[in-house]
Amino acid sequence: MSRDRWTTALASLALAALAGLPFVAIRPVSAAPEPVCLALGDSISAGVGTTLPRKRAFPRLVCDLLAQATGRSTRLVDLAVPGETTRSFLQGDQLARLRDEVTRIRSQQAEIRAVMLSLGGNDLLELTDAPPEERQAGLDRFRQDYPAALAALREAVGRETPVVVTTVYDLSEGDPSAERTDAWWVAQFNAVIREAASQHGTGIVDLEAAFRGHIAEWTWYPGDVHPTNEGHEQIARLVWQALAIDTEAPSVQIERPQAGTLPRRFVTVRVRATDNVGVERVELLAGDRPPIELRYLPEQQVWIALWDSASATGQATLTVRASDFAGHVGESRITVTPFGGTP
Q1: Mean pLDDT, to the nearest integer, of 261-282?
Q2: Domains, in order of start, for the chain
């Protein structure tokens, strides 16, 4: 019996069985509420510095990655306040708004999938050019306030909710071991953030390390201290990795060339690379040459590059490596012989 006829027969049997039963109204099953991402803290979490905060702020980008990973739209609730310090977070209304929002989310039986906190930058900026004794007093306050802020956050969202905090990047890109320099003070504040994150079981994104050497391209400094669009993208990538939600590596298939002798010296490398969230980069490695980055063609959903096989000696192993936004890597390899034999 064909599959279609088999399906029709089963449907007929089901209808016949139901014909003798009393009618029972079936209530529609309501859709599960959207999962929620929460963004808290200062102007970086609020998206300041981007050309379109509601789409390009790092919390929005993380929320979009989460939706892609789960196949469900995810709602972003951004409570961040530009200019917020750790003390104003504790004493102002952001914390109260957080508690109200969590109560509302739980009453809707929605799930909080991620909480992102950027805090500490304004504490440092308030002390710019201050004498050492004032900076030390500010650091002492921060040692009390920041752990208290994380404790209050944990109390509001619960111990099991994923929380990620960020350190503060160093605009001076100086030597953090040189005492009493701007870089040294940034390092002292970040040490408090790291210790509190460990104490309260939160993930941590080390912007101090990630942004070192990239301040000019990832922030508007010296005109402004906030991240550019690219800076927000970098923060989103690091937060996504810290959340550890995406555990799958990309799948890679080399469509061209095929293994064996190449038909010509210059060959097109054509690759299909797929991922449950998204492929960020695809590279070709051949021998000891620098990697060649492949270009994505969205209309064909393939990655391509042109490779000069004259760079190979004898048989060559071509390795294509695809990376996703979580840092996972998938690879595929083929062995080829250059056109005309050994160059």
Answers
A1: 93
A2: 36-243 (3.40.50.1110), 251-337 (2.60.40.10)
